[in-house]
């Protein structure tokens, strides 16, 4: 598989995934896959929610429609891997990660839309970075699957950020920096549960 240039992702994010998270992920691969499936489903739901809320923006509608289709396809792929490996797909409490980011989003428009889109960009960028961080340590099937996701996740990040700038009517570096500060706290801070977007393990595995 051709190497994907992720330098723009690494430059965007405030910190790399801690090695302790990678180690925890390798010890909890069933849980990683289950939560990955939930993340793909939630990503599709977020895109559809934006389509319903902002029906007067053709560019947003087109990009979110494509994104939702891709995320649902990824969801189906993870489900297939779970079934193949005899892993039950069940309920998991969500990570604190996305909730913490959305807690800092503005409530009034257009700030609400701008922040929602920036948060979408941050989540997609982190997902891409984590796929790349863990893929070299996984079995051949999972490594190939996770590497196959890098291109689409990177594009989703770019789409969200481009839409955020369009909604704001200007560059959004200052607001991005503020929300990335929140993101860094979630990634580098101690976490009591393991999830795809959890922080530094403070749990027994």
Structural domain tally: 1
- Give the SSE string: HHHHHHHHEE
CATH topology: Ferritin
User: Rg to the nearest angstrom?
Assistant: 16 Å
Q: Helix content range of the residues, please?
A: over 70%
Note poorly predicted spans: none
Strand portion: under 5%
- Provide a count of the helices: 8
| Strand runs, count | 2
Quick one: CATH class?
Answer: Mainly Alpha
CATH H-level name... which superfamily? Ferritin, core subunit, four-helix bundle
CATH architecture: Up-down Bundle
End-to-end separation: 32 Å
Instruction: Assign an overall shape.
Output: globular
Q: What summary fits the major beta sheet?
A: 2 strands, parallel
pLDDT averaged residue by residue: 95
Taking strands numbered 1, 2, ... along the chain, how are they ordered across the largest sheet? 1-2
GO molecular function, one term: tRNA 2-(methylsulfanyl)-N(6)-isopentenyladenosine(37) hydroxylase activity
InterPro entries: Ferritin-like, Ferritin-like_SF, tRNA-Hydrxlase_MiaE
Protein name: tRNA-(Ms[2]io[6]A)-hydroxylase
Pfam family, one: MiaE
């Amino acid at each position: 598989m051709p190497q994907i240039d992720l330098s723009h992702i690494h430059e965007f994010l405030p910190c790399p995934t801690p090695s302790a998270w990678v180690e925890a992920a390798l010890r909890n691969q069933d849980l990683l896959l289950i939560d990955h499936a939930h993340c793909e489903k939630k990503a599709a739901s977020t895109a559809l929610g934006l389509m319903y809320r902002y029906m007067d923006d053709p560019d947003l509608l087109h990009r979110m429609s494509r994104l939702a289709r891709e995320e649902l396809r990824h969801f189906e792929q993870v489900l297939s891997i779970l079934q193949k490996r005899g892993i039950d797909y069940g309920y998991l409490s969500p990570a604190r990660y996305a909730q913490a980011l959305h807690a800092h989003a503005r409530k009034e428009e257009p700030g609400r839309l701008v922040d929602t889109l920036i948060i979408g960009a941050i989540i997609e960028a982190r997902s891409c970075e984590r796929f790349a961080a863990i893929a070299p340590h996984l079995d051949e099937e999972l490594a190939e699957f996770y590497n196959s996701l890098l291109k689409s996740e990177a594009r989703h990040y770019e789409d969200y950020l481009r839409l955020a700038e369009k909604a704001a009517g200007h560059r959004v570096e200052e607001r991005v920096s503020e929300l990335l500060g929140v993101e860094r706290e979630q990634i580098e801070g101690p976490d009591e549960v393991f999830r795809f977007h959890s922080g530094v393990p403070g749990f027994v595995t």
